[in-house]
C-alpha cells in the first residue's frame, strides 16, 4: 500500500505514519516542516493555508492507495487538497470528530445522530465542530461517499499527545501527595488509544470500507478509577487519590473536562455526549482497544523521555487544575 499522510509529524498523524511503516507501507508525508518527519518516509513540504501551498503535491507525479487527513481548521483547505488528489488517490480517510454531532448527542448516539448545522465545505475557519463537519463535506463532495471514510474520533489518548490531558494527570501523579480524584470512581469513560485509532484507519483503507464511524473505545473499557489508578501506579505510587463527590467539585467552580481532564459529572447531557456513544460499527470493522494500563505506561515512558514537558498545540487551551485550587478543595472536603 502507498499512503499519503497530510501532516504526520504530531500525535494522531504520527501514529498513523508509524503504524503504516510497521506494515511495510510506502509513506509520503506532506507537512510544513515545523517538526521532524518520522524516519523512513518521503517528505513533501508545503503550507495548506498559503498561496500555492500545495505546489509540492501538485508537482509530484505520485499516486497513492489512500490519503489520511487530520486537518481541523478551515474546511476549504480540505476541499482544495481533496480536489487536487481526486484522480491520484484511491480513498480519502478524514480524521474528524464526534463534535460534528448536534450538541448534546444523546446516550447511545450512532452515526445517524443529527449533525451540526451551518457547516460548509467552502468555509473559512469558524469553530471546531463546524470546521470538522465542513471537512467531512469537502471529502465526500470530492471523493464521493464510496471512496470516503469519516473517522469521528472521540477522546484520544496515548504517546505524542499534544493536547495536555493525560500528560497533565501523569505529571500531577508524579508530584505525589493528596490528589483531587473526581468521583465517582466507577464512572465509565470512552477514549481511544491513538495507536489503536491508527491501526483501524489503516485497516479501513485496506478493506476499502467507506462512510462515517464513531471511533472511540466502548463505554466502560476504562473508568475514572482504572485510569487514574494506573497513572498513580506507573508514576511511582507517591500520589494519594482522594475521591471527591462531583457536587463538591462543581460547587468549587472547577470546570469539568478542562481543569480535570476527561472528567465530566456522571449525570446529565455532558457525560452522555462525551462518554456514552455507540461504537458498534467501528468494533465490527476491526477496532481493537488495548488495556488502559498499557496506554498509561507507554505515555509515561514517552513523557519521561521529554522530562515531563509534553508538546502543546497552540490552538488548544491549557489543561489541568492549579495546586492552590486543588489544595483548597481537598481541605474543604476533609473538614466537611
Mean pLDDT: 96
Helical stretch count? 12
Estimated helix fraction: 25-40%
Radius of gyration: 20 Å
**Succession of helices and strands:** EHEEHEHEHEEHEEEHEEHEHEEHHHH
Helix/strand structural class: alpha/beta
Could you list the spans in which at least 5 consecutive residues all have pLDDT below 50?
A: none
- Main sheet summary: 7 strands, parallel
How far the N terminus sits from the C terminus, by CA atoms, comes to: 61 Å
Shape: globular
Question: Strand order within the widest sheet?
Answer: 3-2-1-4-5-6-11
* Counted beta strands: 15
Determine the strand fraction and express it as a percent band: 15-25%
Q: How would you sum up this structure, described in words?
A:
It is a single chain. The chain has 336 residues and is α/β, with parallel strands linked by helices. Helix content is 37%, strand content 19%. It contains twelve helices and 15 strands. The strands form five sheets. Strands 3-2-1-4-5-6-11 form a seven-stranded parallel beta sheet, sandwiched between helices. The protein has a two-stranded parallel ribbon with strand order 7-10. Strands 8-13 form a two-stranded parallel sheet.
Q: Descriptors for this entry?
A:
about 325 residues, single chain, alpha/beta, two-stranded parallel sheet, 12 helices, seven-stranded parallel beta sheet
